């Protein structure tokens, strides 16, 4: 049986800074699904995706990058969790941060993730793209989990929806090369 949403419209990274704006794409995606429009951006019909109205991708990402851009001090090359939470607080979007201690908590983290997805609510997660053979070594990536079944999990990333087997996702979600609290990290959003 499948739990959660069947698909989830999402924005791709901002073209002007495509290598480091996955956090901003996640923020724009959550803002889009919340139904709020703090920037007064006209929505367009996206028949090729899900036949609903969405923000102009470049316009919404430009605004989010301006207000909540990458904020890690080394070359502004990463968005840390506080920046995503700050954006969600500013937009008045309900969420709950869930932090798990590494190594001993994989099963507990997965249970928590599944419980929120069963309510058809998205979960922002941080993954190691190299563990999924989708990126360079030591590369973190923000994406949105939106559904699952016994075989795997569905995530919204890079402007598309993909399915990942549980074993591979759990390995990537562990983010072994960064410190607590980024291992099995999640922001459970309530839309």
Structure, described:
With 191 residues, the chain is α+β, with helices and mostly antiparallel strands. It has one domain: Cathepsin B, Chain A (Alpha-Beta Complex), CATH 3.90.70. The chain has five helices and nine strands. Strands 1, 4, 5, 6, 7, 8 and 9 form a seven-stranded antiparallel sheet that branches. The protein has a two-stranded antiparallel sheet with strand order 2-3. Strand 2 and strand 3 form a beta hairpin. It is globular. The two termini are 23 Å apart. The relative contact order is 0.20.
Record keyword descriptors for this entry.
two-stranded antiparallel sheet, single chain, alpha+beta, 5 helices, Cathepsin B, Chain A, 7-stranded antiparallel β-sheet, 29% helix, 191 residues, globular
List the helices and strands and how they pair.
Layout: E1 3-4, H1 22-34, E2 43-46, E3 52-55, H2 57-68, H3 81-90, E4 94-98, H4 106-117, E5 123-128, E6 140-148, E7 152-157, E8 160-165, H5 166-174, E9 186-190
Helix pairs in contact: 1-2, 1-3
Please report the number of helical segments. Answer: 5
Largest sheet: 7 strands, antiparallel
CATH class: Alpha Beta
CATH architecture: Alpha-Beta Complex
What fold name goes in the CATH topology slot?
A: Cathepsin B, Chain A
Order of helices and strands: EHEEHHEHEEEEHE
